[in-house]
């Protein structure tokens, strides 16, 4: 770990004022500190924002608001979250370990970096870490890598389970810098790698994530998060699906579907949603809709199993909801 200066701002305004070039915000630290130890990240200044008043969790008729410093554990166990948005609670409870969930914050979770082994090894080239240096994953070890949204520069998978659920729910992030506050839909916040994989999101220099808003959606009570991984705990997804259905009797009036573990960002599946609407909630309908899940996929040499796994995970999630 390289030398850095440390400060603990007492207000959001102080944090923004101190956020100069080379500074990094420290919340739970479960990602930043790891990457600093690996010399993947080397901020010149660390701004500890853990004491800022950004931990609110509120639910009302407009939907859900969660402050950026609320812990994963607090959100997962919150009664209004588990009742009105079960996919959020389930996504969080299937993430990391209980100890990490107690420390990690929602803002940090949404901004966590990829777990690609090449990115996390400074001895290896990586276009995310050093633009233009290359992407060894394309021809190397790529079993866990993305099949959707990839480019000739990067195939790193987005790591957050929570972001998949929030994308399905049309959530937005609230961002603040010295010039003011803005809100960006989470689906638009993350960027595809294209030729600039080092640009992962629309966060501006010095800008701070202050919270997340989830619109009111009465039928999100019928939602689920299904995660498929190599082991049952403390493991990232090979594929995952966040799904919600609005059932009117036996007919699907509306659907929200997003996938993780397969995309360079949380991946909304509008073609699956369209194929479900207006049809009965039956296994054969689910299979027909799931056939669209991996459209546009570009598997790599070692992850050719992912398109079929994604389709089966969609079917599994829908059967759970209909059952």
UniProtKB/TrEMBL annotation:
SMART domains: CO_deh_flav_C. Signal peptide: none annotated. SUPFAM superfamilies: CO dehydrogenase flavoprotein C-terminal domain-like, FAD-binding/transporter-associated domain-like. Residues 1-219 form the FAD-binding PCMH-type domain. Pfam families: CO_deh_flav_C, FAD_binding_5. Keywords: Oxidoreductase. InterPro entries: CO_DH_flav_C, CO_DH_flav_C_dom_sf, Diverse_Substr_Oxidored, FAD-bd_PCMH, FAD-bd_PCMH-like_sf, FAD-bd_PCMH_sub1, FAD-bd_PCMH_sub2, Mopterin_DH_FAD-bd. This is FAD binding domain-containing protein. The lineage of its organism: Bacteria, Bacillati, Actinomycetota, Actinomycetes, Streptosporangiales.
């Amino acid at each position: 770990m390289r030398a850095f200066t440390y400060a603990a701002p007492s207000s959001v305004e102080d944090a923004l004022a101190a956020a100069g070039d080379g500074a990094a915000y420290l919340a739970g630290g479960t990602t930043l500190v790891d990457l600093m130890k690996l010399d993947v990240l080397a901020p010149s200044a660390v701004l500890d924002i853990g004491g800022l008043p950004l931990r609110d969790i509120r639910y009302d008729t407009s939907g859900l608001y969660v402050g950026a410093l609320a812990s994963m554990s607090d959100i997962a166990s919150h009664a209004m979250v588990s009742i009105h948005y079960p996919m959020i609670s389930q996504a969080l409870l299937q993430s990391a370990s209980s100890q990490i969930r107690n420390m990690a914050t929602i803002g940090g979770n949404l901004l966590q970096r990829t777990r690609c082994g090449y990115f996390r090894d400074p001895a290896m080239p990586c276009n995310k870490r050093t633009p233009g240096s290359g992407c060894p994953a394309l021809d190397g070890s790529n079993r866990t890598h993305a099949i959707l949204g990839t480019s000739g520069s990067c195939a790193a998978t987005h790591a957050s389970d929570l972001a998949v659920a929030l994308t399905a729910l049309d959530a937005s992030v609230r961002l603040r810098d010295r010039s003011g506050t803005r809100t960006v839909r989470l689906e638009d916040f993350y960027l595809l790698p294209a030729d600039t994989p080092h640009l992962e999101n629309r966060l501006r220099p010095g800008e701070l994530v202050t919270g997340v808003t989830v619109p009111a959606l009465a039928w999100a009570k019928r939602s689920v998060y299904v995660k498929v991984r190599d082991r049952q705990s403390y493991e990232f997804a090979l594929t995952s699906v966040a799904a919600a259905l609005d059932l009117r009797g036996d007919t699907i009036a509306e659907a929200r579907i997003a996938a993780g573990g397969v995309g360079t960002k949380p991946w909304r599946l509008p073609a699956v949603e369209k194929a479900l609407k207006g049809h009965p909630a039956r296994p054969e309908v689910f299979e027909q809709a799931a056939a669209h899940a991996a459209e546009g996929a570009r598997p790599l040499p070692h992850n050719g199993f992912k398109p079929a796994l994604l389709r089966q995970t969609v079917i599994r999630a829908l059967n759970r909801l209909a059952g």
